Amino acid sequence: MFNLSLNENFQVFIRLLLAFVAGGLIGYQREKAEKPAGLRTHILVCIGSALITLVSIYGFGKMGADPSRIVAQIVSGIGFLGAGTIFRFGPSVKGLTTAASLWAICGVGIAIGVGLYFAALLSVLFIMAVLALLELFEQRLRTKGAHLIRVLILDTPGAIGRIGEKLGGMEVNIKNIKMLRERENLMRCYLWLDLPAHLSLTMVLGALQEMNIVQEVEVD
Fold first, then answer.
1. How many structural domains is the chain composed of?
2. Which of 4, 57, 125, 164 could make a disulfide contact with 8, Cβ separation 3.0–4.6 Å?
3. Closest CA to 189 of 166, 168, 160, 146
4. CA 39 to each of CA 27, 81, 159: distance values in angstroms, whole numbers, following the listed order
5. Is the full-model pTM beyond 0.90?
6. SS3 for 87?
7. What is the tens place of the pLDDT at every residue in 45-79?
8. Domain hosting residue 201, numbered range
């Protein structure tokens, strides 16, 4: 049994609390973006990493063992969890960014566990910048020259497919798509469209408005 001093117990409490907050910040961004690993997953990964680091320091470290050996297993073990968020969607692979965010938040948890608070804080800020700000920058690069429209649709099976089929029949290329839940039975779709020369945006909007699953169409 390991008996920690009052100061050591306080350090454990503070570090686990900080791990909870750090994991929550990154997890909230992933949850808001409706990614496979969200708020709870990132919090648990960060707390777990910090906890195992604390155990290696205050437990096995006091027994004379090398604490870094246990910490090294965290880094390798997180790969199995990250792999579960990666899947193939047609010709592309999805979930790599979420897997990377899990790996990064694991590193933040380890940093907090050993007491590197400043490094952990900077890492959280940089991770948030990458996930939020750089995503907008990448989106602008992918959709340069495209028309952005917002479509409110009924959340029914095959709804997105029907819209894609409708636009495809008009020779409209969907360069990017983003979906957010508006209410329980409604989805807000952001579509970046590349129109053929013979087709106007007004014609595309009119065709979408004729569909019974479409509730509202707006141009950004």
1. 2
2. 4
3. 160
4. 4, 15, 28
5. no
6. strand
7. 999 999 999 988 887 766 666 767 777 778 777 76
8. 147-219
